[in-house]
């Protein structure tokens, strides 16, 4: 028995469905400005497309209502990581999500301790955000990316796994 259509408009308003020859089985969604891009395998028929898009949009909705991390939450997380991972060495001025970070995961203004984390990371696992936050925190007391820097940055929980996640996301996620 077929499910009744939930909407006569397809795709839903604010959603762009992109067929990708590189995608073979998985479906990916991400926020791009005010819109949501959903990438699906090119081979999906109309029924599979609709089912996959509805499923991932429902998942995004559940995640955004249950896991919305505010700037204040991000700052609290940075303070906790500073204490637990970096022995309190970082000088934190502010920590905020940044919508204009399209080519980098985070940034740090050393003189003020202001840290910005790309809002593309809002929907990634916590350990990935933690690794990026720790990376930027380390910049508040060690400039550059020398061996000493990495000695501290790699203290982040699951740092190596987070690096792998970010490499894959950068290569295949867009």
Key traits:
single chain; 174 residues; alpha/beta; Zincin-like; 2 domains; three-stranded mixed β-sheet; 18% strand
Molecular structure report:
- Residues 34-166 form the YgjP-like metallopeptidase domain.
- With 174 residues, the protein is α/β, with parallel strands linked by helices.
- It has two domains: 15-65, no CATH class; 71-172, Zincin-like (2-Layer Sandwich).
- Helix content is 41%, strand content 18%.
- It contains five helices and six strands, in the order βββααβββααα.
- It has helices at residues 46-66, 71-85, 126-139, 147-153, 159-172; strands at residues 15-20, 28-32, 35-41, 94-98, 106-109, 114-118.
- The strands form two sheets. A three-stranded mixed beta sheet has the order 1-3-2, covered by helices on one side. A three-stranded mixed beta sheet has the order 4-6-5.
- A hairpin with a 4-residue loop joins strand 5 (106-109) and strand 6 (114-118).
- The protein starts with 14 loop residues before the first strand and ends with a helix.
- The model is unreliable at 1-5 (pLDDT under 50).
